[in-house]
Protein: L-2,4-diaminobutyric acid acetyltransferase
Organism: Occultella aeris
Amino acid sequence: MPTSTELSNARHHHSDASDRASHNPPNALARNAEPGACPDESGIPDEDDSAGTAAVTRPSARTAVDPAPTVRRPTIADGAHMWRIASDSGELDVNTAYAYALLARDFRDTCRVAMVADQTVGFVTGYRRPDAPTTLFVWQIAVDPAFRGRHIGGLLLDALVRDLVDVVAVETTVTQTNDSSRRLFGKFADRHDARICESPLFAAADFPDAHEAEPLLTISGLAR
Ligand SMILES: CC(C)(COP(=O)(O)OP(=O)(O)OC[C@H]1O[C@@H](n2cnc3c(N)ncnc32)[C@H](O)[C@@H]1OP(=O)(O)O)[C@@H](O)C(=O)NCCC(=O)NCCS
């Protein structure tokens, strides 16, 4: 059994050197973005999510993926693929393979995998916050390096939130230096006409290992 530390210690922390875009979307968060006060979003009573098995597609504005990527809930077998993609990411703190198998079984409603043909090329893991079930916390998201830059990350987020019809806010933590992730969430907020704000959450001193601070991004007011 993994320890609680093993289950909770996997967030991204490395720098992403890919800051290649010249156009910043309105919600693109700069590395030096000032932490702002986050409004208190009132919750809506939790509802069981029974959707999420249908594949969705979104055309890529960058490079066509042939065949088009699809998104679905993970199966237990996807746990191993999620572990591999996390291990290959070069960014994420890698959970145990056991943890990904557990997530794929017990949190499948709030996790998704992206498929190209029969290959698992990306995943997102998340959960409803126990104290605020209409807030989705996105724990990890990663795309196989060979498939990055094709908006598969955005496709995963869009498909997950589309299925969680009662979710009104998305939270995640992103290091100051993870430009790709900041752009991913900034553009997600733009697509959903949502507000995004940044506030302190986990300081470097909160981690026992060499780990950057993990400020909190709160995306609220999702257009449904
Ligand atoms: C963050 C991540 C999931 C984005 O997935 P994606 O499918 O590549 O997302 P997008 O195609 O929308 O690209 C998002 C940004 O990544 C960057 N990017 C684009 N192509 C890239 C490539 N080939 N390699 C790395 N980054 C790239 C760009 O900054 C892009 O922003 P832009 O579209 O405004 O130019 C992916 O880069 C990844 O797996 N990173 C490692 C894991 C990680 O850091 N996860 C987030 C924290 S949990």
